[in-house]
Amino acid sequence: MTTAPASEDEHEIVPAEILPEAGRCLSITRVRTWSLVLEARQVPHRVLRRGWEWTILVPHAQREQAEYEIRTYEEKNRHWPPRNTEIQTRDHTRETLSLLLLLAIFHNLTLLDPGPLGLRPEQWYEQGAAHAAAIRNGQWWRTVTALTLHIDWRHLTGNLILGGLFAARLCAVTGFGRGWALILASGMAGNLINAWLQTGSHRAVGASTAVFGTIGILCAMETRRRDKAMNLRRFLPLAAGAALLAMFGAGGENTDLGAHLFGFLAGLGLGYLVPDPRASHPTAHSRFGWSAGLGALALVVAAWTLALRHSF
């Protein structure tokens, strides 16, 4: 910095000629930034202070180069740092709790002996569990029905609490119908992949595959929302999801790590592929969302119809 007046062979950089919104005077922050730009490009210059005002002086011979370098820098960094786009949300907690209550009621019905349709508890599990060999032989509906079955109340309660938290968040972003359609799709995909990679005798039940699918969807969507960030903070949602998988999906004697892992990975894929809910028209978004939700419900009913068609 210097207070010496400009000489005849020096040109004063006029901010307004490069950046109209900068006005006639430069802030100390912009002066330092422009000075660093010129220094990096090896353009001789000096910073001059006049009372409370600042300016940059360059030799006349380097005037065009100096203005070009500063203008190029400002154009490339016009939208930096990126602004986080806020996602419009809507509370679907009541609807989500209602659906979870239905799952709990269904679990209770499967424990009755005899239960609905005259079925015994073991028949529900025999016909609806994710049996790897059966799925590979074409019984795709087991990837759906297994999500609705649980070993006991402890198993169910854990999935209801953890899944309910993340399902409510996902539905707040995507809408209730669309959110649950994505949850079901991630659970189905996770069970399908797991069936193809496990031994033929492998059996599994529980909504946890879809729970970790939900976490994967949310992680992917949040990472996409940060797509303009050029640092490692962009990937914090993925790290958080992996941590949740390690904490809640990798322990326990009867834990199906494969189902949890593949559910999470399936959710990541869906989260990256699903259209951004901020980009769609609200009316069309709502109409499609409820259609997707009804389609998901119909798929669950159809899956159990196929699973039980030989039982009565």
TrEMBL record:
Subcellular location: Membrane
Xref: Gene3D superfamilies: Rhomboid-like
Entry GO terms, CC: membrane
Peptidase S54 rhomboid domain location: 138-274
Segments passing through the bilayer: 203-223, 235-251, 257-275, 287-307
Topological type in the membrane: Multi-pass membrane protein
Any one GO molecular-function label of the UniProt entry: serine-type endopeptidase activity
The keyword Nucleotidyltransferase is assigned to this record: no
Entry's Gene Ontology BP terms: proteolysis
Keywords: Hydrolase, Membrane, Protease, Transmembrane, Transmembrane helix
PANTHER family on file: PRESENILIN-ASSOCIATED RHOMBOID-LIKE PROTEIN, MITOCHONDRIAL, RHOMBOID PROTEASE
Membership in a protein family: Belongs to the peptidase S54 family.
Full protein name: Membrane associated serine protease, rhomboid family
